[in-house]
Structure formats: structure tokens, C-alpha cells
């Protein structure tokens, strides 16, 4: 499907005229940064394979679902109130789960990004990042911004979304450090901002030079420390990535320029290498007559079955297996003496006695004990009532943690192991090498829809929930993305 060209009249409503005019630029130097700008500008919808289309539609559906249930959280309400009270009203773009609420495009991208990560329920890739939440809210906000006669098609939207995912994946692969569970920067706040900028630049049909500048501007707006993990501020990382990437693309569309070598390794000057000490970039080839192989083609996405840090899914599955064994003893016949968890060493997700739902979502101990007690971990596991149960607190007091040398802090190589010793000497063991939902063991379409129905149904009536499933399933066939946008509130 041919990309729609945006007319100067389109920009006169909201943007400076230069946002849509094709500016005359000299030929860029042969740099890594320019190769990325060229890719973003030149990639076409026909380069999306059936596998990439199907996988990215699953990501869109899941991201909308976790964003909708995320719109019920306290942190989302705080972010929305802040935007409504501190900024002038510009009612253009939709807000998840709020039928009568609209914000400016950048603020809608922000609050919807916050919603998506507010429960740590959004998708995860490898190397480690949460790709969809940084991109989809920005793409939807821009789509809302465009006038009725210039709305992108569903295929346009999917192309922009996949560009944003692809850029994130490529940047993460330039660093061995990025392959491991992060210690310094939260990855979505780094590569997510760049992905959002790339997606928005593609949807705005920016030229090669403008696309490069959008990435370079986004790099100056990127980065958040891991110290804010397990707090209410962590969802802001996704919200800011979505918002600031969108702003970077809009600024580039107006003609703002930045470094032409932000992605290159330049001796004595930190560009994107400031985020990763072992950064070694390479060129991104533009599509040719044979097309382009997206990273999503070769590696699927990880989808979470419950709202917690990805690492929790290994120990929860291992503990669930032990729960089944405990049931065989009969009611009242089991007394646990000791619980041993073997996990990778990662300080910010080793939390023996979490004090808040956000800490609980980042606690090997809490998720193990919840699964031992209930046989599963769910949305309800992180409510105040569930977190303060005496039997859960008693189990937490029995937990020990070990970090075997063969268990690296890497989502592609780690395992979770739980060992329970009973009074009387019986020892029960559970181990998980690849949980259900991991990119090596992806959720079936039926499981993904079940998750979506459960999440979206908290906010939307059943007919809209089912309507969204149908719309996303046929997204590449839509001539006008308003069909999707109208279903989100």
C-alpha cells in the first residue's frame, strides 16, 4: 500500500509549515546515523512480512489491553491529573479508558505510556526492553492529531509501529551490556525514546535527514536511572519515552537539527554510547529489491501472564509446580520449614519484604510465595488484602535466596528454581527454564485474547472489547485508523 503524503494544509492546523514540506538537504555523510535515517524514511509497508504483521498485531492488542487496565491505577490517575491541571487544554488525542477526556498529542502519549507500564504488565523483548509501550501511544496520538482527510491507514500505523520496534532492537544489539538485566539505565527510557521518535518520523513521512535529526534529538531526551524501579516513577519512563520521542519527531519536522553522528562511535565524544560503555554500532542497511528482514521476524515477543517484572515469571512457574505437589498431601497435612530460591543476581528484584505493590512486582520472594500459596500469580495478588495475608507473610520469613554461577542475569539464558523443605524432611523442587509467554514459548492467540479480555474488560463494555479484537486482527486491511481509535475509550 502506498504511503500517504501529507499536504501543507494538514500542518497549518497544528504544526509549522515545515513539518510537512520536504526540506532540501545536502547528501548526508556515510555515517551510521544517516543509515538509520535512510532506513526510517525509505522502509515501505510491502517490506512487512506476514509473520511480522501477525506478531506486531499481537503486540498492539496486548499493549492496548494492559494500557486499558493500567488506566485504573493510582499512578495513571496522578499523571492524568498533573497533565489536566498544569497544562493548557488542547483536546485532540484520546486517553485510554476515558471517554470524555482528550489531551494534546504529546500529553496523551505520556499518560497512555504511563498506563501501559503502570502495572509492569507490558511486553518484553531481548535484549531487555519493553518495546510496545514506548511506541504505540505515540503513534496513536499522532493518528488522532491528523485531520479526517489525512488519517493513516491501519497498514501505515503498523509500518510506523514496526519501525519503532525495529530501531529499539537494533540499538540494543550494539552492546553486550544491554543483553543482561539492566543496572544503570532503564532500557525503555533509552531505546524506547529513540523507537518512538523513529515511529513518529515514519508516520509523519519525514525525509532521511529529518529522520536522522529526530533520532539525534531523541537521544538528548533519553535516559532514566534504575533506582526508580519498583516505585511509582518507573511507569513515567515509558510515558516519557513515548512523549519525548514524539516531540523529537515534531521538532525535526520543523527543521530543528542535532548531531549528525549521534549513533556513531566518535573518539572522545559521547553520543548514544553514553548509555552503554561497550557500544559498538554498525550500519543499518536500507531495504532493497529483496526487502528487509525485521528482527521481529526472527525473534518473537515475550508476553506476561501476570503484572510483574519479567524475571518473576520463572520463579512463579517453578513455585506453581510445587503448589501442585503440595496439594497431594491433603489439607492441613503440610508444614513448610524452608524455602530456597535460586535466581540470577540482580539487586533491584531481590526484595525480601516488599512494602508496596510496585516493590512486590519486583520481588522474587513475593512472587514465589504467592504462587506457592495460591498456585498462580494474578492481578489480584498485588492488592493490599493479598499482600498482607498472615500466611503469605509467614512464608516470606522462610525464604532464602542463592545465586548460582550458571544462572546469568540474562532473560535469554536464566532459569528459576524453587526448593521447599517440609517439616518431616520431604524436599520438593520446581524449576523453570522457559516460562509460558517467553519468546521461546509464546502465548497462543487464545491465551493472548483471554488476557486482553480480562484486562480491557475492566474498563470497556464487552462489545467494545470484542470489537477491538476484531479491529486489530484486521488492522492492515483498514483504510482509516479511526476505526481503531474510536474503540479505545
Automatic annotation (TrEMBL):
Record-level GO cellular component terms: mitochondrion
InterPro entries according to UniProt: MmgE/PrpD_sf, MmgE/PrpD_sf_1, MmgE/PrpD_sf_2, MmgE_PrpD, MmgE_PrpD_C, MmgE_PrpD_N
Gene Ontology terms describing biological process: defense response
A Pfam family it matches: MmgE_PrpD_C
This protein's encoding gene: LOC115252431
Family to which this protein belongs: Belongs to the PrpD family.
MmgE/PrpD C-terminal domain: residues covered: 306-476
Official protein name in the record: Immunoresponsive gene 1, like
Residue spans crossing the bilayer: none
Domain MmgE/PrpD N-terminal: 38-272
Gene Ontology MF terms in the entry: aconitate decarboxylase activity
Amino acid at each position: 500500500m502506498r504511503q500517504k503524503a501529507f499536504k501543507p494544509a494538514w500542518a497549518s492546523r497544528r504544526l509549522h509549515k515545515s513539518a510537512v514540506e520536504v526540506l532540501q538537504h545536502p547528501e548526508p555523510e556515510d555515517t551510521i546515523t544517516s543509515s538509520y535515517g535512510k532506513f526510517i524514511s525509505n522502509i515501505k509497508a510491502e517490506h512487512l512480512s506476514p509473520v511480522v504483521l501477525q506478531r506486531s498485531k499481537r503486540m498492539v492488542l496486548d499493549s492496548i489491553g494492559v494500557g486499558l487496565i493500567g488506566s485504573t491505577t493510582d499512578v495513571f490517575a496522578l499523571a492524568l491529573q498533573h497533565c489536566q491541571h498544569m497544562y493548557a487544554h488542547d483536546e485532540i488525542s484520546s486517553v485510554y479508558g476515558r471517554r470524555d477526556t482528550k489531551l494534546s498529542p504529546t500529553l496523551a502519549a505520556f499518560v497512555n505510556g504511563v498506563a501501559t507500564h503502570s502495572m509492569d504488565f507490558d511486553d518484553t523483548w531481548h535484549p531487555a526492553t519493553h518495546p510496545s509501550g514506548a511506541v504505540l501511544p505515540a503513534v496513536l496520538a499522532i493518528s488522532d492529531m491528523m485531520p479526517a482527510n489525512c488519517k493513516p491507514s491501519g497498514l501505515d500505523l503498523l509500518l510506523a509501529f514496526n519501525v519503532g520496534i525495529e530501531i529499539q532492537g537494533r540499538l540494543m544489539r550494539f552492546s553486550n551490556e544491554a543483553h543482561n538485566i539492566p543496572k544503570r539505565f532503564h532500557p525503555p527510557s533509552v531505546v524506547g525514546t529513540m523507537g518512538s521518535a523513529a515511529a513518529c518520523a515514519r508516520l509523519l513521512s519525514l525525509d532521511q535527514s529529518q529522520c536522522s535529526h529526530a533520532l539525534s534529538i531523541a537521544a538528548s531526551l533519553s535516559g532514566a536511572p534504575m533506582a526508580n524501579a519498583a516505585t511509582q516513577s518507573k511507569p513515567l519512563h515509558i510515558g516519557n519515552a513515548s512523549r519525548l520521542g514524539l516531540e523529537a519527531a515534531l521538532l525535526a519536522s520543523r527543521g530543528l537539527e542535532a548531531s549528525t553522528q549521534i549513533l556513531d562511535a566518535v573518539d572522545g565524544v559521547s553520543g548514544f554510547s553514553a548509555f552503554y560503555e561497550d557500544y559498538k554500532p554498525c550500519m543499518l542497511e536500507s531495504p532493497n529489491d529483496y526487502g528487509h528482514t525485521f528482527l521481529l521476524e526472527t525473534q518473537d515477543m515475550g508476553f506476561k501472564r501476570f503484572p510483574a517484572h519479567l524475571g518473576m515469571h520463572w520463579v512463579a512457574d517453578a513455585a506453581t509446580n510445587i503448589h501442585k505437589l503440595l496439594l497431594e498431601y491433603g489439607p492441613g497435612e503440610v508444614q513448610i520449614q524452608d524455602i530456597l530460591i535460586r535466581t540470577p543476581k540482580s539487586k533491584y528484584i531481590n526484595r525480601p519484604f516488599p512494602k508496596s505493590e510496585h516493590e512486590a512486582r519486583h520481588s522474587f520472594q513475593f512472587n514465589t510465595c504467592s504462587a506457592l500459596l495460591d498456585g498462580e500469580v494474578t492481578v489480584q495478588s498485588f492488592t493490599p488484602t493479598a499482600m498482607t495475608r498472615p500466611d503469605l507473610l509467614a512464608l516470606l520469613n522462610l525464604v532464602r535466596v542463592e545465586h548460582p554461577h550458571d544462572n546469568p542475569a540474562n532473560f535469554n539464558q536464566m532459569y528459576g528454581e524453587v526448593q521447599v523443605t517440609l517439616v518431616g524432611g520431604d524436599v520438593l523442587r520446581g524449576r523453570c527454564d522457559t516460562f509460558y509467554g517467553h519468546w521461546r514459548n509464546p502465548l497462543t492467540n487464545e491465551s493472548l485474547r483471554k488476557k486482553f479480555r480480562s484486562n480491557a474488560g475492566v474498563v470497556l463494555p464487552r462489545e467494545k472489547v470484542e470489537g477491538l479484537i476484531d479491529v486489530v486482527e484486521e488492522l492492515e486491511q483498514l483504510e482509516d485508523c479511526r476505526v481503531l481509535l474510536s474503540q479505545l475509550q
